[in-house]
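Quick one: co-fold with adenosine-5'-triphosphate.
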Amino acid sequence: MIRLTESQRHFFTLVSEAIYANPFAEEREAIDTRIAGLFPGARVENLIDETIREVSTRLKALEPSGLPRIDRVEPKDRSLVENALVFEFFYLFRERFDALTHRQLEAEDTSLTVPFADEAHAFFHDRGFSTKQFCHYMALCYQLRRAFLLIRDSLVGTSRAMRNLRRDLWNNVFTHDIGLYARYLINRMEDFSTLILGETGTGKGTAAIAIGRSGYIPFDPVRKAFTESFTRTFVSLNLSQYPESLLESELFGHKKGAFTGAVEDHKGVLERCSPNGAIFLDELGEIAPHTQIKLLQVLQERHFTPVGSHLKTRFNGRVIAATNRPFEELTGSDGFRADFFYRLCSDIITVPPLWVRIEEDPSELTALLNHTVTRMVGKESPEYTEMVREVIDRQLGEHYPWPGNVRELEQCTRRVLIKKSYMMTPTRQEASSLAETLTQGLRKGEMDIKELTCGYCAMLYKRHGTYGDVARITGLDRRTAKKYIEEFDQVD
Ligand SMILES: Nc1ncnc2c1ncn2[C@@H]1O[C@H](COP(=O)(O)OP(=O)(O)OP(=O)(O)O)[C@@H](O)[C@H]1O
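Sure, here it is.
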């Protein structure tokens, strides 16, 4: 039997901590520093390579054959060696997991065959792992790598607020202790609902996608593929887009003939969500009390009934919800029912406003511009980034508050790329030029009622700055006013 020496035990404990540490948290840096202590003189960027080499060397040294089998390790040391072997596997295969993640993103909903499945299986088999253990570690390593890429690449920014956000998103997926998560919680995350708060355009939807697509997806050794594509594991619904009468049907689905216009069966988001997935309820702040009650029942009982049906259907996914209403408003008298609110809040994640990020770290703006320009132009373009930055510095100044946050920054970048200039929105100046356009349209008699209503709401919004004011002046409800304004912005 293989028995670890004290020094081996110390080293493999460190490795176990490293593999399961949150890569976006400071604790990870602390572990790296401790590992660095083992390699005096090594450069930080080579640290991981040094560690991988050292893990392999030490694992090989455990057996004369150079191939330590997990079933030959003394029980009390087994989990340490198991973790070290998983660490070795993870780093040997991580680039292939990355390539798979990118290819899967392009292939969308059909789950791809894993080209390295046989090689991976042989790795675990040769080291004494069962097929069940192999499948588990395949799924876990894919999940770890996918979550890392999705969180790192979609939410850029070096400010403390952004680093904290990435750390919190990781914990939202894996909890603060991946070891425990992997052992007990993998199939029990459905009860962990998440509420994402933040101003409009800060990246709440982006954060929701990152965590929604980072769930654990079992591996099927027969098909040599994961049981589904991660692109199918996230279903979103913008609650403010639907009138009350249609919302329940969008959430729970309906049966043919359930109401006038229900000409065929319709699957709601809850039914479309896969068991490994999450539904994203955007603009949750707009939801009426009786829909809150129905959703609360689903969260508690895990069953829902489509409109016009008597059959209960089980819902296994997670719920992620977002709203740009301030926290105090949500818990106030005309906000959420308290029971609904608390059921939703296993975790609350707040996405920081852009001005806070820039204030914390002025280089954040450049990093974001770089990211945005690269996305728009299709490759890194330092000269365009520089040009956009120059216009922003000149026209908006250092302390511009970015009321539309990252979405406004994207819009600004587009406009500067086209016009080399950016007029801020919303401004009274824009409101009056919009009023002028509307008046001209009325004079010419060319506008239909929708254009007129959307344009009028948008003008009021630019003038007053809140949906509430638009609703008060027009007599529309807040949700409808907002819908018209968004429709106008999309056409604009
Ligand atoms: N940290 C970030 N790094 C890169 N892009 C970002 C970041 N945050 C947001 N974005 C981009 O900004 C845009 C707006 O983000 P998103 O739609 O997620 O915001 P939101 O808070 O959900 O908005 P709303 O409140 O209007 O629903 C998206 O194109 C998104 O990709």
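If it helps, The chain has a mean pLDDT of 89.
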